[in-house]
């Protein structure tokens, strides 16, 4: 079974391009399953096709996880790892049938989003202005646009210069949930200053259409933006609290708190279902 797990992890690394942290979690979870099989299973090679593995060992493994008093989310993660492993084994012909139905995941309540207090958002957004570098001026524009629009980080990084309409003060998002988002005049002026005076200093190729550029003059990546956000969070004493997603959550919660109607916020966020937006009415918004 250990060799099968190794093959599965190699597949996740080479084909799925999973991160080291994700691979480490899969390795831990699947080796826990292997150790359980060793202690409880057949001594004849732990054949996954044995009926006893299907009928007794898997329910027993599930019960052992519950007995360790893991949280439901941890149990769900370990079972998801096992199910993915079994599917891989079926696809590779190592299992005749999928064993996943013998592992029932616990119901995990989806946690409520955690918007930042308004004061913390202000601290974060004001930090880049304390620096005079070209990068900091770009970062100021990016953070302001993110909080003003509620875009996902991937959507923000996908913006092109043509997506900004400074006559109408709008930002056009062309992602899976295409939409046009109005922006306040101060944010529009900040974008204009960035496009006119900052972006040219970053630009290397006049054919580049990306709005936000890295030091090489190329489109900034989502990972690069995440690191930038973390850097400013560290500077203002908010390490571990701020992510691009938390700013998106803050946009939605603060909009509703200030009196925006649910349907308009749904459209701004690009939510397919209004129930997704309604969750933000249940969160606490602190000043």
Please give a structural write-up.
This protein has twelve helices and three strands. It is mostly helical and 287 residues long. The protein folds into two domains: 2-102, DNA polymerase, domain 1 (Orthogonal Bundle); 118-282, Intergrase catalytic core (hpI Integrase, Chain A), CATH 1.10.443. The longest helix has 21 residues, at 20-40. The chain is elongated. The chain starts with a helix and ends in a 9-residue tail after the last helix. The mean pLDDT is 87.
* Largest beta-sheet details: 3 strands, antiparallel
Mean pLDDT: 87
Structural class: mainly alpha
- What is the H/E order? HHHHHHHEEEHHHHH
Euclidean distance between termini CA atoms:
54 Å
The proportion of residues in beta strands is under 5%
Helix content: 55-70%
Number of distinct beta strands: 3
What general outline do the C-alpha atoms trace? elongated
Number of helices: 12
Order of strands in the sheet with most strands: 1-2-3
Question: What is Rg?
Answer: 24 Å
CATH architecture of the largest domain: Orthogonal Bundle
CATH topology of the largest domain: hpI Integrase, Chain A
The tally of domains stands at 2
What is the fourth-level CATH superfamily of the largest domain?
Intergrase catalytic core
CATH class (first level) name of the largest domain: Mainly Alpha
Low-confidence region ranges: none
Helices and strands in order:
Blueprint: H1 2-14, H2 20-40, H3 51-67, H4 72-91, H5 118-126, H6 134-149, H7 153-157, E1 164-165, E2 170-173, E3 179-182, H8 185-202, H9 222-235, H10 244-257, H11 262-269, H12 274-278
Antiparallel strand pairs: 1-2, 2-3
């Amino acid at each position: 079974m250990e060799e099968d797990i190794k093959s599965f992890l190699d597949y996740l690394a080479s084909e799925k391009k999973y991160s080291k942290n994700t691979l480490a979690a899969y390795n831990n979870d699947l080796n826990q399953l292997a150790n359980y099989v060793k202690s409880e299973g057949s001594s004849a090679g732990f054949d996954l096709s044995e009926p006893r593995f299907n009928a007794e060992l898997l329910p027993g493994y599930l019960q052992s996880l519950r007995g360790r008093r893991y949280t439901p989310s941890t149990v769900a993660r370990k079972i998801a790892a096992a199910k993915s492993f079994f599917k891989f084994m079926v696809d590779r012909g190592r299992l005749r049938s999928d064993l996943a139905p013998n592992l029932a995941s616990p119901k995990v309540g989806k946690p409520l989003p955690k918007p930042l207090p308004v004061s913390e958002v202000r601290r974060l957004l004001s930090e880049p202005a304390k620096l005079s570098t070209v990068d900091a001026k770009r970062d100021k524009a990016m953070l302001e646009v993110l909080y003003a629009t509620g875009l996902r980080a991937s959507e923000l990084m996908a913006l092109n210069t043509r997506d900004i309409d400074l006559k109408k003060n709008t930002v056009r998002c062309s992602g899976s949930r295409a939409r046009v988002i109005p922006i306040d005049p101060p944010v529009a002026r900040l974008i204009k200053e960035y496009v006119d005076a900052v972006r040219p200093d970053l630009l290397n190729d006049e054919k580049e259409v990306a709005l936000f550029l890295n030091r090489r003059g190329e489109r900034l990546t989502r990972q690069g933006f995440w690191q930038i956000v973390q850097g400013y969070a560290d500077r203002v004493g908010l390490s571990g609290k701020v992510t691009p997603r938390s700013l998106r959550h803050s946009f939605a919660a603060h909009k509703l708190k200030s009196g925006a109607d649910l349907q308009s916020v749904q459209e701004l966020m690009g939510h397919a279902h209004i129930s997704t937006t309604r969750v933000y009415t249940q969160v606490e918004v602190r000043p």
